[in-house]
Amino acid sequence: MKTRRRRTAAILAAVTAALGASALTVAAAQNASAAGACDVEYDVVNDWGSGFQANVSITAGETLDGWTVEWDFTGAVSGISAWNVTSQSLSGSHFTASDAGWNGAIAAGQTREVFGFTASGNSGEITNVEVDGVACAEGGGEQTTGPEPTDPEPTDPEPTDPPPAGTPVEEHGQLHVCGAGMCDESGAQVQLRGVSSMWLHWQTQPYAQNLQGLEWMRDNWNIEVFRVAMGVEPEGAYLDDPQGWKSEVETVIQNAAEAGVYVIVDFHAHQAHQHQAEAVAFFSDLADRYGHLPNVIWEPYNEPEQVSWTGVLKPYHEAVTAAIRAQDPDNIIVLGTPTWSQDVDTAAQSPVAGTNLMYTLHFYSCTHAQWNRDKADAAVDAGLALFVTEWGASAADGGLDGRVCLDEAQRWIDWMAANKISWTAWKLDVGNDSTNLLSAGAPVTGGWDNYLHGHAPFVIANLP
């Protein structure tokens, strides 16, 4: 379910109104005089039955230098997780949250979307709303509704230009899952091959974000797909700067559309299930604005560690997948699997319901051998569609010792070719690890024939 409603009127008289869960507006007072009354909007943007996502906006009657908002849910709600707030709490049905500092200032007459949250349960309505401890103006917390907006919200335009002639996206178009494989717009089974970025915040230079470099890889290495690995948890990564790193990911998406290559948007985390609210917000926003593009592939969880599939990972994927599907009904989503995305056979025993879903398989050839392919074969035999979004001809640490294991890597390459399993090799950066594709001095814009490092020659030899 997707809704987009915004108030266009100022303060309304307080009247009781029964409103569906998609949007709710309540009148609140900034201070005891009620002259500073403002509007608070509770906007449910996604509801998947067992839970929901909502955004909250405040329209200030007088300038606010900080705020605390609270209300009671009419439905049974639990497990709430909000972002862009401090001091959030849920006691029974009563919810309270305060600004995070940077979003505390709201000018008189200004409407500002200040935070969002996900929760388990029934979205229902909200009552007894207070802002800074004062009940709704003259209405004792009664709910009021606003008119439908007279002007539609601006949306990102549909692409008007086709992908460049001769590019992978021009050739294959919209992708979809077909059985245990991937097919293109014409129904032909396809195997995409390409490379992955380094964790964005740890790149030595912004290789991933450079359009010329991407076009050079397309034309010289023949890559068909590029994976942008947005680090989430480490210091300086997404959780520390969500807007900054999301903007960098958007640059890669836009470059890929211009270059006519497929792009995997990777929430590169090892504990993403602990940041479900942030993941839902991230993918909801990007799917809303870029889900119309035929070349986008979503990857909500890079490498889960040794956690339960049915108890932890599957519920996480169900929530994030529902958020994506509310905005983007058809692009492929690749779901991370237990034990650093190796236990695809476990996921095959209880797959996530939905369409165009694939499952992540990772390998490093000095560590993972036939036993791991046996697990993958079991998953494929069970009908699971796999995508190797990360691999290296090295040890599982990415090749800190500088070794490459090319014989075993070739067995993996042959196995992926036989099963038409798409892949992206780790990683486009400079460094001593044997999985770094580039050597010192490699320019950002491409032209890397004399700057190959580690397993790069092997990777490039196996690109289309």
UniProtKB/TrEMBL annotation:
Compositional bias ranges of the Acidic residues kind? 150-159
SMART domains (UniProt xref): CBD_II (SM00637)
Matching Pfam families: CBM_2, Cellulase
Recorded hits in InterPro entries, A to Z, give: CBD2, CBM2/CBM3_carb-bd_dom_sf, CBM2_carb-bd_dom_sf, GH, Glyco_hydro_5
Signal peptide coordinates? 1-28
What EC designation does it have? 3.2.1.4
EC top class named in words: hydrolase
The record's listing under PANTHER family reads: ENDO-BETA-1,4-GLUCANASE A, GLYCOSIDE HYDROLASE FAMILY 5 DOMAIN-CONTAINING PROTEIN
Would you tell me the protein name for this molecule? Endoglucanase
